[in-house]
Structures are given as structure tokens and as C-alpha cells.
Design brief:
The protein is α+β, with helices and mostly antiparallel strands. The protein has a domain of about 70 residues: Sporulation related repeat (Alpha-Beta Plaits, 2-Layer Sandwich). Helix content is about 55%, strand content about 25%. It has a 4-stranded antiparallel sheet with strand order 2-3-1-4. It is elongated and about 95 Å long.
């Protein structure tokens, strides 16, 4: 019985030692590889399209034009966007890649336009 215990102990130790030396071999289908590469490209494209902007106003045309003019005078360093989405006109300011920078600018803009808020666009 003692010999059997020694044999089992030796056998288990040798398996453990051999298991550490093996490198896993992963057989991956070319279709799976191609899909993974395509997904990486799509994610990069989506990331490049993503940006933040600050919305100053959403409503009627006359008020939107007034706010656009005020914003152009107060913040000439930031791009200004005037758009129409049925039934409202929107005035948006800036195009920021990083939310931290957009938030910084939002604090500065809120001093003049208290109702402004941050929007994530794509």
C-alpha cells in the first residue's frame, strides 16, 4: 500500500510539472479572426465620430437667432452650430472629443447661459 501512495504522489507531481511546460495552442477559424478585426475597425470608427457639444437653446427661431448672435460675440473661440430638428431650432457650441474638456467649457458657458447642458453626439 505504501508503494501505491508513493507511486500516486510521484505520478501527480510529474503531471503537475509537465502541465506547466505546455503552451496552449488555439485553433481559430479565419472567419472568426476576420470578424474580430472588422469589429475593431468599427469600434475605431465609432470612437472617431463620437464628440460632445454644449446645447445653449432648443426652441423657436427668433429666440434661437438671438442666442446664436450672443454666443458668437461671447465665445468666438468655439464653433457655433445652428440646426433645425422638427419642430425646434437648436443652438450648440463647441465640438469636444473629451468629456472633461467639454465639462470645463460648460462651466464657463453656464455663467452666460445658465440653461446650457452637455450632449454626447455621434
Amino acid at each position: 500500500m505504501s508503494q501505491l501512495k508513493w507511486f500516486l504522489a510521484f505520478f501527480c507531481c510529474s503531471l503537475a510539472l509537465n502541465a506547466q511546460n505546455l503552451e496552449p495552442k488555439i485553433a481559430q477559424d479565419s472567419v472568426v479572426q476576420r470578424m474580430a478585426e472588422e469589429r475593431i475597425l468599427i469600434n475605431k470608427e465609432n470612437y472617431n465620430k463620437l464628440y460632445f457639444t454644449i446645447q445653449l437653446y432648443n426652441g423657436g427661431y427668433k429666440q434661437a437667432k438671438e442666442i446664436q448672435e450672443q454666443a458668437a460675440e461671447l465665445f468666438p473661440d468655439l464653433p457655433l452650430y445652428f440646426t433645425f430638428e422638427t419642430p425646434n431650432y437648436k443652438v450648440q457650441l463647441g465640438r469636444f472629443k473629451f468629456k472633461s474638456k467639454a465639462t470645463q467649457e460648460l462651466e464657463r458657458i453656464k455663467k452666460e447661459f445658465a440653461e446650457s447642458f452637455l450632449i454626447q453626439q455621434q
